Amino acid sequence: MTRYLSLYWYFIIQRFKILMEYRLNFFIGSTSTAVLQAASLAAIWVVMRQIPSLNGWSFYEVILVYGLLTMGESITHMFADNLWIIGWNYVRSGDFDRFLVRPIDPLFHLLADRFCHDGIGNLVTGAVLVGVSMQQLDIALTPLRFLYIVFSVLSGGLIFIALNLITATSVFWVMESIPITQMIFNMNEFAKYPLNIYHSGIRILLTWIIPYGFVSFYPASYLLGRDIGPLVWLSPLVALVFIFAAYRIWLFGLRHYSSTGS
Amino acid sequence: MMQSVRRGISIYSALAATAAKARLAYNMWVWADFVVTLISMVVFVYFWRAVYAGTSTISGLQLSQTITYILLARLLSPLIETRTIFFFGFMIRQGQIAVELTRPLDMQARIMTESFAELVVFLFQRLPLFLIAVLFFGMRLPSDPMLWLAFFVSLFLGQLILFLFDWIFACLAFYVTETWGLSVVRVGAGSFFSGALVPLVMMPEWLQNVAAAMPFSQALAVPLSFLSGIKTAADAPQLWLTQLVWLAIMFVLSRIVFSTAVRKVTVQGG
After folding, report:
1. Residue A198 has pLDDT above 70, yes or no
2. How far is it, in rounded angstroms, from Cα A26 to Cα A259?
3. CB contact (8 A) between residue A189 and residue B40
4. B32 with A183: CB under 8 angstroms?
5. Which residue, A164, A168, B165, B230, is most buried by CB atoms nearer than 10 A?
């Protein structure tokens, strides 16, 4: 474990050396995602200034949900972005073979190979949204709440990574996994808003099958003091179950890997 | 004369056909687009139903009008995306631009033909989703043929305007080499000010003015206003005229800007 941590540190230092060669690009990359978030947020603002609440959720309560989701998503964006491009960048080019002959876990090597700075913008945007909405809603940042948020964001990040890992594993059969990853990943759109605006079928789907609800809706409900039962404590457990299952599926897929040769 | 027109038509239709085939070659991507669009349609429908839970009209729009507008905006969203900027960045980085400029075809006309062919294929691929929107999500399309005429004419004009605007914007790639950031700003501004996320009439007045000063709404919100009952067929001539003015300005500007910028070209490596 400590070996992997120090290795990751080494990888990330190397990665930053590369990124710092092009400082302007680093800056643009890490802030550009904030521009896209601004468009969605402006749209929510335009609509919600006309109505008192969205199914009982005020503007800042919706922003809290949105902010938590953005923070969770930024974790996978920063630390596991290679799961998106594993197909064309590693498997199809034959580069993936390189990971298999090294004395470390191939998945670790794949993820550590490229820290993606584009996610930094989303992390900051999400944190600002959570901070501003908590301040506007008079929710004090107690040590307990702070820990709760940290654990929620980390669990949320793991849920994102687990689902992307499961879908990325399809690369060992179909060579290009982005379309499949995209279909499941985009389900997170649902979790940008409080889940109680949807049909109960969608809510169940987003809770137990594609559990993006645990990234945003359930933690936000806890912070807002809404009584929705023990589900608000389940994020870390769900995250661990999914990441464990995803890793097993990945290992299964890895056994079916046959190099492209060239 | 006739011969050169015929030659032009055959060249550009061949280009259009090739672009269309390239789009259709990847089956999985079509499915991914189907699912992703469907998800965003479902999210928007539930969101707007919740918005209208306590009120019957917002800025003069009823729920059924807003749902029709928003579903059309989701279905037609590729119309406000852009590939011109990526393409410029790519050509300049690879040095491809030098080859493009020596071709005996007008570069702008060629790229526009390909872009439009891709868009048409894209929209045909989405036809099943139009059907789903009508059958399951309450999208109500008008039956008056005049409204459809108004829609198609203003859609065509609007797409030309947006293409020429993107052409001007993409010329920045000759000056700054970082095109990723440029395209993100363009996509962010485009999705909001085109009315793709929320009907423009719901915005506060100052934002509506900002949107009117930008070309994006001409490509999406204006055509859609005919199909969602925001505008009537009687408004069409005036809106077409405005679009023609936009088009003339954009066309002249795009020619001037491109011929100035292209002298700046510095091919990176290669």
Report:
1. yes
2. 33
3. yes
4. yes
5. A168
CA gap A194, A53 in Å, rounded: 11
SS3 A260: coil
Beta bridge partners of B58: B61
Q: Which DSSP letter does residue B26 get? A: -
Element (H, E) at A124: helix A118-136
- Considering the entire predicted model, what is its pTM? 0.89
Q: Categorize the per-residue pLDDT at B266 as very low, low, confident or very high, splitting at 50, 70 and 90.
A: low
Model confidence pLDDT, tens digit, residues A169-187:
999 988 888 999 999 999 9
| Closest alpha carbon within chain B to A22 | B178
The pLDDT confidence band at residue A19, using thresholds 50, 70 and 90, is confident
Q: CB of A104 within 8 A of CB of A13?
A: no
The domain segmentation of chain B, as residue ranges, is 56-105+128-264
The pLDDT, as a whole number, for residue B269 is: 52
Q: Letter for the amino acid at B121? A: V
Structural domain containing residue A215: 2-254
Report whether B71 contacts B133 (CB < 8 A): yes
Contact B71, B44 (CB under 8 A): yes
Q: Is B46 on the interface with A (CB under 8 A)?
A: yes
Q: Which residue has the tokens 């969203």?
A: B77
Distance CA B39, CA A14 (A): 39
3-class state of residue B62 by DSSP = strand
B26 pLDDT band (50/70/90 cuts)?
low
Residues of A in contact with B180 (CB under 8 A): 25, 28-29, 32
**What is the rounded distance in angstroms from the CA atom of residue B72 to the CA atom of residue B139?**
8
Share of chain B above pLDDT 70, in %: 95
How is residue A111 written in tokens? 């993820």
Would you say residue A259 lies in a domain? Answer: no
CA–CA distances in Å: residue B180 to residues B33, B94, B177, B192? 22, 15, 9, 19
pLDDT in tens, B199-225: 999 999 999 999 999 999 999 999 999
Give contacts of B31 with chain A, Cβ < 8 Å: 179, 183
- Averaged confidence pLDDT in chain B: 88
Q: How far apart are CA A252 and CA A254, in angstroms?
A: 5
| DSSP code, position A205 | I
Residue A243's pLDDT is 97
Helix and strand totals (H; E) in chain A = 13, 0
Report ipTM (2 d.p.): 0.91
How many structural domains compose chain A?
Answer: 1
